[in-house]
Task: inverse folding
């Protein structure tokens, strides 16, 4: 039986990936780890877990990635062949408020994963990085060949640190590692701290939404199903183990962007969102959006544009994310209506 360990399995990407794997292959065991913290509405995490719990080939462990004994015990018990590390303290702005959470989850937690992959060899370690590592780079689209030495948030710095640690372990212990830089992931049952979700909450409550950099921001919004498809393809193709001219192992290490390769202007995004919220019945048809919008300066830690160069992903895996923004936001609005509005909340 194929054994896959997914950390952060109750998270947005983790739950959708686990569901895809469980559906695709009932013969493989998916082990999920999550600490179920309350960084955002735990009910969403519980709902995701509830869906996964219906599969007989799913095992869930509640625990903290920073607990080394727990992580080691997981590897000892299940001996995963493939590990997908998605557990992390997410969010750029929150890293300014609570930096300790980022060091614990993103640095110590990932180190524990690397150590376990060292002592309990795996076929492939896939881990989440982030488009935030590109920081204030001026060149677009962002390429994995670009220098990423100037992070503008602690969150970004921890993700860059993960890439460096993974490379070191790939070199030292010949562990096949692939890092994935995700670009603004969105969709149904997503993260409430993301703009599209937060905007919806505020508009529904009659509050004003703030549009940063006076609306002159662009984001490479990537629909959750495209992210999952990319991860699944990468999982099945670990970097090749081989020796260099000196006879020593060349690090089996790769990095890819997974983004829509089509940045959207924030004001256009808000227009589509409001149209889809009205269509789904989340907001009334006569909602006065202009009265609930405020253009404000850029926030610390933010960048004006994200834009993924996905050429290597297309070349190596024959895949490129392509879900239109309106399609993705429509599915989100319909989910939001069912999860919140139809329950009378």
Result:
């Amino acid at each position: 039986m194929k054994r896959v360990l997914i950390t952060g399995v109750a998270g947005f990407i983790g739950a959708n990936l686990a569901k895809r794997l469980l559906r695709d292959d009932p013969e493989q065991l998916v082990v999920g780890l999550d600490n179920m913290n309350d960084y955002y509405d735990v009910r969403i995490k519980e709902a995701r877990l509830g869906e996964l719990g219906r599969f007989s080939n799913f095992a869930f462990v509640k625990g903290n990635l920073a607990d080394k004994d727990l992580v080691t015990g997981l590897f000892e018990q299940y001996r995963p062949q493939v590990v997908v590390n998605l557990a992390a303290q997410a969010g750029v702005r929150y890293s300014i408020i609570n930096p300790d959470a980022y060091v614990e989850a993103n640095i110590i937690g990932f180190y524990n994963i690397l150590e376990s992959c060292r002592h309990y060899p795996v076929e492939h370690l896939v881990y989440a990085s982030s488009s935030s590592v590109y920081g204030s780079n001026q060149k677009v689209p962002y390429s994995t060949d670009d220098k990423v030495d100037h992070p503008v948030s602690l969150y970004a710095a921890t993700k860059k640190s993960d890439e460096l640690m993974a490379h070191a372990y790939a070199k030292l212990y010949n562990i096949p590692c692939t890092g994935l830089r995700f670009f603004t992931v969105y969709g149904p049952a997503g993260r409430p701290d993301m703009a599209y979700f937060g905007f919806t909450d505020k508009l529904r409550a009659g509050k004003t939404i703030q549009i940063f950099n006076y609306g002159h921001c662009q984001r490479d919004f990537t629909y959750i199903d495209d992210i999952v498809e990319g991860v699944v393809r990468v999982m099945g193709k670990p970097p090749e183990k081989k020796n260099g001219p000196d006879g020593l192992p060349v690090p089996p290490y790769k990095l890819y962007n997974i983004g829509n390769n089509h940045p959207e202007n924030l004001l256009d995004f808000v227009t589509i969102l409001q149209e889809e919220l009205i269509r789904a019945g989340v907001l009334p048809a006569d909602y006065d959006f202009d009265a609930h919008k405020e253009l404000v300066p850029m926030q610390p830690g933010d960048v004006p544009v994200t834009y993924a160069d996905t050429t290597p992903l297309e070349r190596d895996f024959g895949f490129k994310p392509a879900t239109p923004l309106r399609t993705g936001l429509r599915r989100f609005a319909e989910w939001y209506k069912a999860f919140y509005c139809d329950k009378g909340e």
In short: The longest strand covers residues 124-130. The radius of gyration is 20 Å. Residues 3-185+222-259+306-322 form a domain with the Rossmann fold fold (CATH 3.40.50.720). The CA atoms of residues 180 and 256 lie 5 Å apart.
